[in-house]
Design brief:
Elements: E1 7-15, E2 21-30, E3 35-40, H1 46-53, E4 60-65, E5 68-69, H2 75-79, E6 82-85, H3 98-108, H4 113-126, H5 142-154, E7 160-164, H6 172-183, E8 188-192, H7 196-202, E9 205-210, E10 213-218, H8 220-226, H9 232-242, H10 253-263
């Protein structure tokens, strides 16, 4: 017996008013409980695509969410099924306190203040930020703002979570903490990210966007290799193992600085394989 997808997109095309063709024949599906990473360069169509899933943009083709065709008449119904966490968390936080902010969506639906605040407190617990309930959002760290934004989505009890560049502005502990939070949530998820390590932690599979089309799908590692979307860590490990390869990390102060920055984003307790890396892979 086949499993019905919670999102199904067929032959989706979209062109902006200035003539830019942003999506070209997208076919995509998301299964219940599945996590899919969207990879690809800036401008490849990832964000335009996710804005079609809750009706913020509408192109040619079909988009179905939880069995509901997405169109102008169903947009409000669809948005109760999908929770969208934007890259800039501050754009979703605007009330005097975090608790009031999380409760806002429920009260906007006509739920009583007492019930909305009760549910908001529970959502903050789920997001691991209950202690910040009475703080002003602008007093939160970047990681706390991301969690508060997620709590504001969870309180609406969506079936699907969509996160656009969720690791932006987060330090390594914040990234690890966010990954642990998302891994524990039961909803199906779409994660738009450039962070291969973060995607590898969470995603069951990935799709790769290129110039408005999906150019491939498969495991994170498969797409990283197929499309040259490799982190410098992988290039340097290959260099260490073969000694014959000369990856881009050699001979350039700029590339060495990029790699040094990358080192600070990986998890602690690195693999023993690091001990054999040539020093010119690490320092200029």
């Amino acid at each position: 017996m086949s499993i019905e997808p919670v999102i199904e997109v067929r032959d989706l095309w979209f062109r902006y008013a200035d003539g830019t063709e942003a999506l070209r024949g997208i076919n995509f599906h998301l299964l219940p409980g599945e996590t899919v990473a969207l990879l690809g360069a800036n401008g490849s169509g990832k964000t335009t695509f996710i804005l079609h899933l809750n009706g913020l943009l509408q192109g040619k083709g079909s988009v179905t969410v939880c069995g509901i065709p997405v169109n102008a008449g169903t947009a409000q119904q669809v948005r109760r099924k999908i929770g969208l966490v934007f890259q800039d968390s501050e754009s979703q936080l605007f009330m005097p306190t975090v608790l009031e902010d999380v409760a806002f969506g429920l009260m906007n639906l006509g739920i009583s203040s007492a019930e909305a605040l009760h549910r908001a407190a529970h959502a903050l617990e789920l997001a691991g930020i209950a202690e910040a309930a009475n703080k002003a959002p602008y007093h939160l760290s970047a990681g706390e703002k991301r969690r508060a934004s997620i709590a504001g989505i969870l309180v609406m009890d969506p079936e699907i979570l969509i996160l656009d560049e969720p690791t932006t502005s987060l330090d390594p502990p914040g990234q690890r903490s966010l990954a642990e939070l998302l891994a524990g949530l039961p909803q199906a998820k779409i994660i738009v990210t450039h962070d291969v390590e973060f995607a590898r932690e969470l995603a069951d599979r990935a799709v790769f966007f290129h110039r408005g089309a999906i150019s491939g799908e498969g495991s994170i590692d498969d797409l990283v290799i197929r499309f040259g979307w490799r982190a410098l860590r992988l290039a340097c490990l290959q260099c260490s193992m073969t000694r014959s390869a000369r990856p881009a990390c050699h001979g350039s102060r700029e590339s060495s600085l990029r790699f040094s920055s990358f080192l600070f984003r990986i998890r602690p307790a690195p693999s023993a394989a690091w001990s054999g890396l040539p020093m010119n892979c690490l320092l200029a």
